[in-house]
Write a structure and sequence with these properties.
globular; 3-stranded parallel sheet
Length: 288
């Protein structure tokens, strides 16, 4: 469930597969009203298969929506499906965000750094957000939360994957004490070309360094397949004529940007489409 407009976030992570943050803000606002979200959810639950989780996530940071608590409460009133929150963890120290996330059945925050300098290099947060505030928020949330916490760590070559950086992350992990630590690396076209993947050999080394809770996340092929119907020939014809962003494709086929990105990413993986970073945007071009 997408709780904020596309790329509304208090981070501008170098590895983000959705490109650069267009609305860089730490302001908590009612970006999308709870009533509108819940109305769409009811329609979805009536017409589609039962999901494993209803997840607060999307194309930005969901905890920026001031109606997060109302949404989670509303979901629990109309369904017994467990609720998950996928968050960068930056606002868990804010009381209203803390109260909302305590209602979830599963919380998956991120931690991609073990110090202020690496945090600013990898996540590029809003100026008012400090690394110490983020980590203290994660620690205090973990102490209050009774459900499972899966901590996600995105590894970027030569940015946060060295022994010293991993040791500092390990120290934070010990303080937070999550049930699991999910290790991932750059797999899709990132916001910045400097964001490069870590080798699987290095991922295995980092896994051992972080301890028994660490797991390496491997995407399945099905995770890249869009759940919408798009005329593939028309899409390829469009982006062969002129490179398009995910937003262009979403508007052309009347779908949301997340589904457009999933579809384009699959074509990239099949070597039928290439991506290129120009002026902070990711453009996709069909191969002749």
């Amino acid at each position: 469930m997408d709780l904020v407009p596309a790329k509304t976030c208090d981070f501008d992570c170098v590895y983000c597969q959705l490109g650069r943050t267009s609305r860089w803000s730490a302001d908590i606002e009612p970006y999308v009203r709870a009533g509108d979200i819940l109305a769409e959810l009811r329609t979805r639950l009536e017409s589609g298969p039962r999901p494993d989780y209803i997840t607060m996530a999307g194309s930005g940071e969901p905890t920026l929506n001031s109606e997060l608590e109302a949404v989670i409460c509303g979901v629990k009133e109309i369904s017994d499906i467990p609720v998950a929150v996928l968050t960068n963890g930056s606002l868990l120290g804010v009381p209203e965000v803390l109260d909302a996330c305590l209602l979830a059945d599963l919380v998956l925050p991120s931690l991609d750094a073990g110090d202020e300098a690496t945090f600013r290099k990898v996540n590029r947060p809003c100026p008012e957000i400090s690394f110490s505030e983020v980590t203290e928020g994660l620690v205090s949330f973990r102490e209050s939360y009774e459900g499972p916490v899966f901590l996600e760590v995105m590894l970027v070559k030569d940015m946060n994957s060295g022994d010293e950086e991993i040791e500092r992350i390990r120290e934070c992990v010990e303080r937070i004490a999550p049930e699991e630590v999910h290790l991932n690396t750059v797999r899709r076209p990132p916001a910045e070309s400097s964001a490069r993947p870590v080798s699987m050999r290095r991922m295995e080394e980092i896994k051992r360094m972080l301890g028994p809770e660490a797991l390496i996340i491997r995407e399945s092929a099905s995770s890249t397949v869009a759940t919408i119907s798009v005329d593939e020939d028309k899409l390829l014809a469009l982006i062969t004529r002129r490179p398009c962003t995910r937003r262009d494709v979403a508007e052309a086929f009347h779908i949301n940007e997340i589904d457009a990105l999933k579809f384009l990413s699959r074509l990239v993986e099949e070597h039928r489409v290439v991506s290129e970073h120009v002026g902070g945007e990711v453009f996709y071009k069909g191969l002749p």
